[in-house]
Amino acid sequence: MMNTGDILETISMIEDEHLDIRTITMGISLLDCCDSDIKKSCDKIYDKITRKAEHLVKTGEQIEKEYGIPIINKRISVTPIAMVSACSGGNPVEYAKTLERAAQTVGVNFIGGYSALVQKGFAAGDEALIRSIPEALATTEHICSSVNIGSTKAGINMDAVALMGQTVVDAAKATADKGCIGPAKLVVFCNAPEDNPFMAGAFHGAGEPDCVINVGVSGPGVVSTALKKIPDGNLTDVADVVKKTAFKITRVGQLVAREASRRLGVPFGIVDLSLAPTPAVGDSVAHILEEMGLEQCGCHGTTAALALLNDAVKKGGIMASSHVGGLSGAFIPVTEDAGMIDAARSGALSIERLEAMTAVCSVGLDMINIPGDTPPEVIAAIIADEAAIGMINSKTTAVRVIPAIGKTVGDELDFGGLLGGGPVMDVSMISPAKFISRGGRIPAPVQSLKN
Amino acid sequence: MRAVITVVGKDTMGIVAKVSNFCADNGVNVMDVSQTILHEMFCMIMMVDASKMQLPFAEFSDNIKAYGEKEGLKIHVMHEDIFNSMHRI
Fold first, then answer.
1. Could you tell me if the ipTM is greater than 0.85?
2. Dihedral of the CA atoms A32, A37, A43, A47 (nearest 10)?
3. Quick one: closest CA in A to B31, which residue?
4. What is the spatial distance between Cα A203 and Cα A5, in angstroms, rounded to a whole number?
5. Residues A130-152: tens digit of each pLDDT
6. How far away is chain A from the Cα of B13, in angstroms, using its nearest Cα?
């Protein structure tokens, strides 16, 4: 018989501490669907997605029941649509509509990959796709979009940064009647991972196999509860507890990934071992930092605590899975995290502090409501700052900010569901317009002589 | 396949019998049982073999959960592999 304590621990992790598999994401390559006729191209895409992902949702639900572990989302990521669109020409929104139809047919929550990779410049199809993003997000429900505007190898494409500043504003305006949901489904990346299973930034990179299963685990509540058991331990003990907990969480992810891959007959790609918060009480990354001893997330010490957490999660998770990838670390999406929402409301957490935090965690400025009248060049400059942090530190950074149209600092904007909601945060309006309008590229950084 | 069934609820007469009868009716063989009463709360962990079961496992899991609710018990069924992968290297 197994150890009773171990069994009870596992059950309380799932029942009380929100341990779940956040997503099973099937990556599907659309490179073989390209056709010079956009209609044929769309038909092939619809056929391929509905064929490959036909049993995805059902299989996910079966595994959920058999193993007794909740699997919250079943999703699909596809080849960046700009690549397919480059071949066919035509209005890229047709692709968005096709993806939406396919998503509804197979019953997934989101389909990611309305994307373009433009870190060095615009290829055929890229600019048209980026310009179509606001319309694509406004006319569909399940599509997620991402654009990679920089990388450590290529530098930062500042023309694309300027364009994205405008695109974020346009996406918000186009969905102003739906609570500005557009930009909540749009991520601007530097060093975007090609195998990320988490939305809104998931896409299926060009170097990936034809079809692949990637799994994202979660469990901030489990880590937080584990830390409650050592209220007086020093930070070495804290790191140790986080590592051990991350190991256990990731092992469950690995098990589910292997099983899903076997049942669907699709190769297993990676497990993304991220602490992804939800607005539910007890599922917050901010509360882990507070459990470590901060009065409130955002105070001095937050960056250090997050650095410890992020690194320990990776260390614990790496041994638990045969292939780790994606973003892997701690997420800090403000509107999706009960502790972050409180900290933003009380003024303890500012965008500047969040920016510092992104230098040591796995993502970037994520799910932040900003005033609706924020000029596009300020958003572009926020993107440029984040991309610079990612480029110099050889890590992924991203920006997903939501201009709350018609609202200002202190107002609330709610999206509901996993996307949550929260206060509009203050943004410095001192103008970077000249800097952004210069355009061009920020050259790739030196990767040696690092002092 | 082997699974772990946990049962928690207010202690009443015949819980062990009810749950094991339910298992037997579905062709699920009870291999090991650990049971205790904590402050009038009944807690039981059963290791079962479900390889001869006729029903799909997911359906059995739903049925026993529903049966538990009817009897005022919280019943959880999980595949043994979850525990093995989490607690053993």
1. no
2. -10
3. A1
4. 40
5. 999 999 999 999 999 999 999 99
6. 23
Structure tokens at B33: 């049982």
**Nearest residue of A to residue B62 by CA position?**
A65
Considering only CB atoms, A62 lies closest to which of B45, B58, B83, namely B58
> Does residue A302 share a domain with residue A403?
yes
Six token digits for residue B82? 């979850």
Q: Which of A152, A173, A190 is the last residue of a domain?
A: A190
Given a contact cutoff of 8 angstroms between Cβ atoms, the answer to whether A337 and A285 are in contact is yes
Residue B83 and residue A67: Cβ atoms within 8 Å? no
For chain B, how many structural domains are there in total? Answer: 1
pLDDT (mean) for A253-276: 93
**Hey, what are A245's tokens?**
């907990």
Question: Which whole number is the average pLDDT over B44-64?
Answer: 89
Closest CA to A286 of A252, A330, A242: A330
Whether A255 sits inside 8 A of B85 (CB atoms) is: yes
Mean pLDDT on A72-82: 95
Verify cis geometry, omega within 30 degrees of 0, for the bond prior to A200. Answer: yes
Cross-chain residue pair B87–A1, CB shorter than 8 Å: no
Which residues of chain B are within 8 Å of residue A61 when distances are taken between CB atoms? 58
Same domain? For A221 and A358 the reply is yes
For A319-343, the pLDDT digits (tens) are: 999 999 988 889 999 999 999 999 9
Does the residue A451 lie in any domain?
Answer: no
Q: Look up the CATH number of the domain holding residue B83.
A: 3.30.70.260
Q: Nearest C-alpha of chain A: how many angstroms from B43?
A: 10
- Spell out the residues 6+ positions from residue A29 whose beta carbon is closer than 8 angstroms to its own: A78, A79, A204, A208, A209, A210, A211
- Containing A75, the helix (H) or strand (E) segment is strand A71-78
Q: What is the DSSP letter of A76?
A: E
| A348: containing domain | 215-440
Rg of chain B (C-alpha set): 13
Q: Is the Cβ pair B57, A251 closer than 8 Å?
A: no
One domain for residues A153 and A263: no
Residue type, A426: D
Contact, A329 vs A361, CB < 8 A?
yes
Rounded CA separation B25/B49 (Å): 13
CATH code, domain carrying A55: 3.20.70.20
The reply to whether residue A4 touches residue B82, judged by beta carbons under 8 angstroms, is no
| Yes or no, beta carbons of A4 and B45 under 8 Å apart | yes
Cβ neighbours for A106, distance < 8 A, ≥ 6 positions apart: A49, A50, A53, A54, A56, A57, A76
Interface contact B85-A251, CB threshold 8 A = yes
Side chain identity at residue A203, one-letter code: F
Which structural domain range is residue B82 located in? Answer: 2-87
Q: Is A5 an 8 Å CB contact of chain B?
A: no
Same domain, A307 and A419: yes
In a domain, A201, yes or no: no
Contacts of B52 (CB under 8 A, 6+ apart): B27, B28, B29
* Residue A136 within any structural domain of the chain: yes
Instruction: Establish if A251 touches chain B: CB-CB under 8 angstroms.
Output: yes
Residues A7 and A99: their CA atoms lie apart, in Å, by: 42
